Amino acid sequence: MEKKCVIQQVLWQLILFHCITQAHLNDAAADAVRDLLPAYAKNDLSSLCSWADHVKFRYPWSSALHYINTPDNLCTYSYDRDCKDDSGEAGRCVSGAIKNYTSQLLTYGKSATQNQYNLTEALLFLSHFIGDIHQPLHVGFTSDEGGNTIDVHWYTRKTVLHHVWDDNIIETAEEQFYDSYVAEFVDAINQNITVRKWSNQVKEWEDCSDNKTTCPDKYASEGITAACDWAYKDVTEGSVLDDEYFLSRLPAVNLRLGQAAVRLAATLNRVFRQS
């Protein structure tokens, strides 16, 4: 019997990792992931979906790598303008982190004495950050910290807008449509990727221009557009978000999760094919 989701972790990451990505890996990538995962993970990438969140306390420098702050209401993203931390250090944002950890993983296959990187951590960071960059409010406005300072009610529950997109929409969809079973939610997304709604878009989602291994700037530009079109739209401080918001935004959540799963798998497939 499938387990219900009772683990307290960001559902956005759980859905992305849980059974989606590894189903789309080629043999070389699957072997590399198996090699890099710690033994206690039992070849299950989903078991470590929240690792990058948990290590913020051990690695405080990593906190800035989970998001991008863009100018309020411009609804555009520019790497040179936006990818920096609060101190102004360039490259310290989720897009820069994806580029960095992709580059690190491209060294896979070198001997331990030749390789200066912790590739297990690189894999876990990269996987998590590709999930983050597809959550629209991880590419949000500077003044509200990606919706983290916008207080709202999700039906009757007090929360913040960022949490609505990390968890509440997915949690409500699981309860209403999938009897709270994560695996059924995942299966619906997989079906849309492989044979249904999105199957003819997968190649376009996978592609990166100029034969790049990954293209996070493309994902970030999509993210701020989705944030403006869906996450922020018609929301103000104290808004009550109910069925109207939930049902109109759920397709955008499903789409971004599907894109994230496809692109994470495609990135890992390209990385380890080149190793």
TrEMBL record:
Enzyme nomenclature, EC number: 3.1.30.1
KW Glycoprotein (keyword) present: yes
Keyword annotations for this protein, in alphabetical order, are: Disulfide bond, Endonuclease, Glycoprotein, Hydrolase, Metal-binding, Nuclease, Signal
Q: Which reaction does it catalyse?
A: Endonucleolytic cleavage to 5'-phosphomononucleotide and 5'-phosphooligonucleotide end-products
CDD domains, alphabetically?
A: S1-P1_nuclease
Signal peptide (from-to)? 1-25
Name one matching Pfam family: S1-P1_nuclease
MF terms from GO for this chain are: metal ion binding; nucleic acid binding; RNA endonuclease activity; single-stranded DNA endodeoxyribonuclease activity
Q: Which SUPFAM superfamilies match?
A: Phospholipase C/P1 nuclease
Q: Could you confirm whether the keyword Cell wall biogenesis/degradation appears in this record?
A: no
- Which example biological process does GO assign this protein? DNA catabolic process
Name the PANTHER family for this protein.
Answer: ENDONUCLEASE 2, ENDONUCLEASE 4
Report the family membership: Belongs to the nuclease type I family.
Q: What is this protein called?
A: Aspergillus nuclease S1
